[in-house]
Amino acid sequence: MSDNWVVSTLEDALSNWNDKLAEIWSLVSQTPESFRGGEIWTVIVSIHNALVGFGYGLLVLFFAMGVFRSAASFRELQRPEFALRHFIRFLLAKVAVGSSLELITAIYKICGGVVSTVMGGIGSAISTTATLPDKIVEAIEDVSFLESIPLWLVSLLGSLLITVLSFVLILTVYGRFFKIFIYTAIAPLPLASFAGEATSRTGQTFLKSYVGVCMEGAVIVLSCVIYSAFLSGGSTALDESLPAVTMVWQYLGQLMFNMLVLTGLVKGSDRLVHEMLGA
C-alpha cells in the first residue's frame, strides 16, 4: 500500500467495498439456521411455536366466518357436499398451521436451490474487485503538495460515497434475512386464514410475499454479476495527458456509476421480485 495519504484513503475505501461484496456473497449462500451461528433461528422457532396456538384459535374463527358467509340459508348448511367441502378446507388449513415451520423451511430450500444453482453457474464471474489503477497511483504520487490539496477533497468525497454505498448494500442483504425471520415467526397466523374461503387470500398473499423475499437472493447474485461485467468490461481508458485531479475524478466517476448500478439493483431487488410474482 502506498504511503501517500490520498492513495491510502482511496485504497481503504475500495478495500472496504470489496470486503462488503465478499460478505454479501457469503450471506446469500447461508441458510437462516446457520445465520450468526443459529442463535437467532432458535429464538424465531420458539416464537413460531408459541404462535401456533394462536393460529389454531384463528383457524376456528376463520372457519366459522367462511361457513356462515358462504351459506345462503340454514338449509344449505345441512347439505353433505357443503359440509364436506368446508371440512376438507378446515383439515388442510389445520395441517398448514401445525406444519407451518416445515412449510416455510421447504419453500426456503426450494428458493435456496435456485440461488445455489445461479451461484454455481456464474460464481467465477464475481471474481473482479475494485482496485486503484497504477496510473492513478503514479499520477497522485507525482503531484506537488499544493497540487495535492484538491486531491484530498476528491479522495474524501469519493471514499465517503463508496463507504455509504457499501453500507447500503450490506444493510439491504441483512434486511432480507430479518424479513425471512419475521415471516417465519408469524407464519401460523396468516396461514390460518386458509380455513375460510373469504379469508384465504391473506394466506395466499403471505406465501407469495415469502417466496418473493427468498428469491431476492437470486436477484442479488445476478446484480453482482452485472456489476462485475461493468467493472471488467465497461471502464473507459484513462487519459494520461490529463491533470492528476481530472484523472482521479474521471476514474471515481465511472467507478461510482458502476457501484450505483449495483446498489440500485440490490436495493430494488424486493420490488423487482414482487413485480415478477405479481405480489
List keywords for this structure.
279 residues, mainly alpha, 11 helices, 80% helix, 0% strand, elongated
Structural write-up:
By secondary structure, this protein is mostly helical. 80% of the residues lie in helices and 0% in strands. It has helices at 5-28, 39-70, 74-77, 80-98, 100-122, 134-142, 145-186, 188-191, 200-233, 244-267, 269-277. Helix 7 (145-186) runs parallel beside helix 10. The longest helix has 42 residues, at 145-186. The protein is elongated, with a radius of gyration of 26 Å. It starts with a helix and ends with a helix.
Strand pairing plus helix content: what structural class?
mainly alpha
> How big is the Rg?
26 Å
Annotation field: number of helices: 11
Apparent shape: elongated
Biggest β-sheet description: none
Quaternary class: single chain
What's the total number of strands? 0
The helicity comes to over 70%
Alpha-carbon distance between the termini?
49 Å
Could you tell me the mean pLDDT? 81
Segments where pLDDT lies below 50 for 5+ residues? none
Q: SSE order, as H and E?
A: HHHHHHHHHHH
Could you tell me the strand content as a percent range?
Answer: under 5%
